[in-house]
Design brief:
2 copies of one chain form a homodimer. Chain A is an alpha+beta fold. Chain A has helices spanning about 10-20, 75-90, 120-125, 130-145, 155-160, 165-175, 195-200, 205-220, 255-270, 280-310, 320-345, 355, 360-380, 390-400, and strands at about 30-35, 40-45, 50-55, 60, 65-70, 95-100, 105-110, 115, 225, 235, 240-245, 250. The longest helix of chain A has about 35 residues, at about 280-310.
C-alpha cells in the first residue's frame, strides 16, 4: 500500500489518541517536529501538563532527500525488533516503546527529552561519570545475548534471518568500506586536507586490511548489532543514557558496534584540538575521553567474560582459553572498525559535528589530519595495540 | 501433511511414470533399493533397454533409525536448491535433475551407476588422474559464486536466508565440534585407542582452537557449502566425477568443504598403513594421495585467484593484497576443518571404512593413532603449515 505521510499536526494528534491511551487531556495536545536524523520523521506530542511522547515515522525514502532516493520501509520493522530485544535485556538503555504499527511504519515511544545528544555533550566537553559503565553493560549484554553464545544455535539462526537488513547494510558496505579508501565522487574532502587524502587513497596495505574487515562485516553474523552506534545515536545526562536509532541493526561482527562507538570518542578527541575554548580544558577533556574508553573496555570485557563463563548455551564456547582469544580478537576488531568509522567521517560523505563545526578550513584540516593518522594506525596496527593503555599511548603520540 | 512412504515397488514405478516422461517402455521397469547413506531412501528404476534413473526420497526421520529420530524434511529443499545452483555453474559435477516434488520430498535424477563411490575406489587404491582438476574446479567455482565475491551483496544475503539449515547444522555442530573433543557418550572409540583418546580429550589448546573453528562454522556465512563433502559424497571413474548428497548445504566458511574433502584423503592415507595388500603398492598410493592434495590445492587456488581478479562484484574485494591474504587464510581454515573432520571420524560417532574396515583392533588403532596425530597437528599448527608441500612433510614425518 502507498505510504501515507501525516499531512498536518491534527492528523498526528488523531493518530496518537486513536492508538494509545497515554494522555489524560487530549484537548491541549501540541506537536513539534524534531526530525534531525537524515532518514525519518520524528515528532514530539505533548500536553499542557508536561506529559509527552515521541512519534517516529519511516517514509519509503530518505527524508532529507525525498522520494528521489527510495529506501526500504522494512527499516521500521528492523528498528522495532531491535528496540524490543534490547528492552528485554537492557530496559534502562532504550526508550520505552508504547506502540508499533507495521502498516504505517510508526513507532510511539518514550520522550527522552531529559537527555541530550551525546555528540553535543562531548562537543561542549561535558563529563559523564557513569557513561562508560552504562554503555559497557549495554554492549556486553546485547552482543552476548544476540550471539550463538547466549542463544541456542537454532534461535541465533532465526535471529540472523529476521534481522537481515540488506538495503541498509549495502549503504554501509559502500560508505564505510569503499568510498573513504578511494577518490570516490560521493566523498566530501576538505580542500586543505586534499594532499593527505590522496596519500591515504594510495595506501595498498590499508586497502587490504579494509577488505579483510569488510569481508567480516558482510558475512560474519555473530551478534545482533545496533549497526550505527555513533555518539549521535546515544542520548545521555548525568544519571542515565539511552540508545536510539536502530534501523541499521543486523547480525554482524560484534566489534563493529564497539568500534564505531570508540571511533566517535576519538573523533571528538581530534576535534578538541581546534574547537573553541580554553586549551587546558580541552586537553583535560581529551584525557577524560581516553580514560573513558579504557574504563568502557575494562568493564565491557569483564562483563562479557562473566557472561561467557556463566551463560554460554554451547559448552564448547565456554572454554577459558577460547574466551581469552575471543576478547583479544574482539578488541582487534574494535580497533579495526573504529579506524574505518574515523576514515569515513573524515574523508567520506558523512562528517561529524565534533570536527565539521570547526569553522576555519585550516584548523579543521589539522583535526582531520590527526583523525586520518589515528584511523590508519588503528586499521594497520590493530594486532599490535593490545590494550586501551597502548591505544591511549598511540593516540597521544600521534597528537604530539 | 503426513509423510507417505512408498509401500511397494509398483507405487514407485507409478510415481515415476506419472511424473516424468523418461522411459520409452514402461512395461519392463524394475526397482532396486540402493539406500546406503544414513538419512534417505534411494531407489534405481531401470528398464530392459539399459535406461535408468534414481529416485531419492527424504523421510521426516533418519532412515537407518526410523521415526524415533525425527529430522526435518526441509533437507530435501536444501538439497534440491544446492543441486540446482551447482548445476548452473558446474553441470558436469552433479547428476542431472529430472524432477523435484516439494510435497512428497522426492528428487528424480540421473543414474550415475557408471561412477563408483570415491571412498571405495580409494580403499581399492584406484588412481584417478583427473580427480584433482575436477574437484578443484568444482570447489573454486561453487565457493566463489556462492559468496559475496561472486554475488551482489543483496543476492548473497538472500542465498544465506534460503540456505539456512539449522537442524542439520546443529547435528554437525555437535558431532564435528563437541563430541570428538570430550568423553561424550555418543563417541565410538576403539578400545585399543582408549589411552590416546583420553589424552586427546585433555588437550586444552585443542579445545580452544576447535572453539575458534566452531565459532566460524556457526556464524560466518561467506559461501554456499556442500556441507558434508567427504569421499562418500563423491562418485568417480577414470573420466568423470560427480558430487551428491547435498542435504547438509548452508552458507558457511569456504574452508569447511575443502577441509572435509582433504581430511578424507588423509584418512585413507592413515588406513593404507594397515589395509590389506602389498606394502609398496600401499606406500605408493599414499604418495599419490599427497600429490593429489597438492595438485588439488594448486589448481583450486589458481582458479579462485582468477575468479577474484576477474569477477569480483565488489571492487574492494578484488585488491591483490587481499586476495593473497584470503587464500592463505582459506588454506589455514582448510587445515583446521580437516583436523576436525579427521578427529570426528576417529573418536566420534561416525567412522570411515578406510580405517573401520581394518579387521584387527590393534592394526586399526595403529591407523587411528596416526589419524589423531595428524588431526592435532592440523588444528594446532594450521598457521605454520603454509603449503601442501609442508603438509606432505608433516604427514610423512608423523608417519615415520
Amino acid at each position: 500500500m502507498p505510504f501515507s505521510e501525516f499531512s498536518d499536526q491534527q492528523q498526528i494528534i488523531d493518530y496518537v489518541t486513536q492508538h494509545i491511551d497515554y494522555f489524560t487531556d487530549d484537548s491541549t495536545l501540541q506537536v513539534t517536529e524534531l526530525s534531525d536524523g537524515n532518514l525519518n520523521y520524528v515528532y514530539r506530542i505533548s500536553d499542557a501538563g508536561g506529559n509527552s511522547l515521541i512519534l517516529k515515522q519511516t517514509p519509503p525514502y530518505i527524508r532529507v532527500i525525498g522520494d528521489g532516493w527510495p529506501l526500504t520501509q522494512d527499516r521500521a520493522r528492523i528498528e522495532y525488533n531491535s528496540l524490543k530485544r534490547t528492552a528485554e535485556r537492557c530496559p534502562q538503555r532504550v526508550p520505552k516503546m508504547y506502540h508499533y504499527d507495521a502498516e504505517h511504519c510508526v513507532i510511539l515511544m518514550q520522550d527522552i527529552g531529559d537527555h541530550d545528544n551525546l555528540r553535543e555533550l562531548m562537543i561542549q566537553r561535558v563529563r559523564l561519570p557513569d557513561l562508560a559503565a552504562q554503555l559497557a553493560d549495554y554492549l556486553a549484554v546485547t552482543k552476548f545475548y544476540g550471539s550463538g553464545m547466549g542463544l541456542a544455535s537454532g534461535e541465533h539462526k532465526q535471529l540472523v534471518r529476521e534481522s537481515q537488513n540488506p538495503d541498509l547494510c549495502q549503504i554501509h558496505e559502500e560508505v564505510f568500506f569503499l568510498d573513504p579508501f578511494c577518490d570516490h565522487e560521493r566523498n566530501d574532502v576538505n580542500p586543505a586536507l586534499r594532499d593527505e587524502a590522496e596519500a591515504f587513497w594510495q595506501n595498498n596495505d590499508l586497502k587490504r586490511e579494509v577488505a579483510i574487515l569488510k569481508r567480516r562485516y558482510m558475512s560474519d553474523t555473530e551478534a545482533l548489532l545496533h549497526g550505527d552506534l555513533h555518539t549521535g545515536s546515544v542520548f545521555a545526562n548525568q544519571n542515565s543514557c539511552k540508545v536510539i536509532d536502530m534501523e541499521f541493526a543486523f547480525c554482524g561482527p560484534a566489534g563493529f558496534d564497539t568500534g564505531v562507538l570508540l571511533a566517535n570518542f576519538l573523533l571528538n578527541y581530534c576535534g578538541q584540538n581546534n574547537l573553541p575554548g580554553d586549551a587546558d580544558e580541552r586537553a583535560g577533556y581529551q584525557d577524560w575521553l581516553l580514560t573513558t574508553i579504557s574504563e568502557l573496555w575494562q568493564r565491557f570485557s569483564q562483563r562479557f567474560s562473566n557472561l561467557m563463563q556463566q551463560h554460554c548455551v554451547d559448552p564448547s564456547l565456554s572454554d577459558a582459553g577460547y574466551q581469552q582469544w575471543y576478547l583479544q580478537q574482539l578488541w582487534q576488531d574494535t580497533l579495526g572498525y573504529a579506524g574505518v568509522e574515523i576514515s569515513r567521517r573524515t574523508v567520506g560523505i558523512a562528517h561529524v559535528a565534533d570536527i565539521a563545526s570547526i569553522e576555519s578550513e585550516t584548523a579543521r584540516a589539522d583535526s582531520e589530519r590527526l583523525a586520518l593518522k589515528i584511523a590508519e594506525s588503528l586499521i594497520l596496527r590493530r594486532s599490535e595495540i593490545q590494550s586501551p593503555a597502548q591505544l591511549a599511548d598511540t593516540v597521544r603520540q600521534l597528537n604530539s
